[in-house]
Amino acid sequence: MKNIKNIMLLKFYFLASILILSLNSCSNDEGGAFGTLAVTGISKSVIDDPLVEGDRKVDVPTDVINAGNTYIIRGSGFSSLKSISFNGLESAFNPTFVTDNAIVIAVDQATPYYNEMDEMKIVTNGGTLNYKVKIRPPFPNISGFPINPNPGDIITIKGEYFLRPVVNFGTTSVEPISSTLTEIKVQVPSDIQYKYLSVTNVSGTTVAGQSFGSAIFDDAYTSLKAYDGLWNASDGYNTAYDKDAKQGTKSIQWKAGGWNGLYVGIDKTKVDITKYKAIRITIKGERSGTVNAIVNGNYGAVFSLTFKSDWTYLEIPFSAVGNPAELTEITFQESGNFGGNTLLIDDFGLILK
């Protein structure tokens, strides 16, 4: 999911560069004269419902600004832009993406939207323009939910911007039991394995990056784990570390000695490996470093993972570790070559094909 979003962003900036070059060319043809400060239209850079295949469009006219999204403001008199703000909060702009006739702007995620004036303010060397436009919240942000729930369970989805939320398990819509801007309680329907959670608010839809049933660790080891342990029992090992987590509220803390290992056996009867393409893991180190990943004890196909001192999302493609026919064990070996490291591990599981 993250890679897809990054590719889309790169494609958009390529499009924006072409747009800016085109508009610069037009300005030069007109002798470089700059127009009166005015807004003639607003377009959203990308329209793409993640629940609908093949509906992606770019440069789509709109009369609504959603915080956290990118827009093209068209008009005149923008070339000496000093600032642009939405409901009183300035959004940073890249001068490369500003001409006299267009501004390409990523609206700040923190832009206020509730009981505000619904106003865009453009300030240039030539003057100030206050322009009325509807300002709405960002798309939902899903920060945590039980990844391996059972049908009938009542679960809590945590995140932000849950304004009039609609919750889907795959294509099955479920009415929330209760909801606030940061939490939704719902009852899990049947037949959710290999499907994704999505939340839609008044602005759009966000799909969680983890499919149901794919977690090996999610606040605790799940039933996919058969056994676990350390090469060196003197290493610190806390599987309920509650001071820091990426997904949910708890993570694994491993105080790894240099070149020591942590292994997790997988119950192969509960994992249909034909459904998955990779292992996912998010790691945070006391120091930036590396760990080796060994799948099913295959030391002929060791896969190195590099992480930072903040949460780093990583993937281990099965194609890079021998294309195993089944999954029985995953081992991580500290390999920073500086005498060991304290690691936090979270969001440990599998990625659907």
UniProtKB/TrEMBL annotation:
The keyword Signal applies. It holds the Pfam family TIG. Gene3D superfamilies: Galactose-binding lectin, Immunoglobulins. InterPro entries: Galactose-bd-like_sf, Ig-like_fold, Ig_E-set, IPT_dom. It comes from the Bacteria. The keyword Signal applies. SUPFAM superfamilies: E set domains, Galactose-binding domain-like. Residues 147-210 form the IPT/TIG domain. Keywords: Signal. Residues 1-27 form the signal peptide. This is IPT/TIG domain-containing protein. It comes from Flavobacterium reichenbachii.
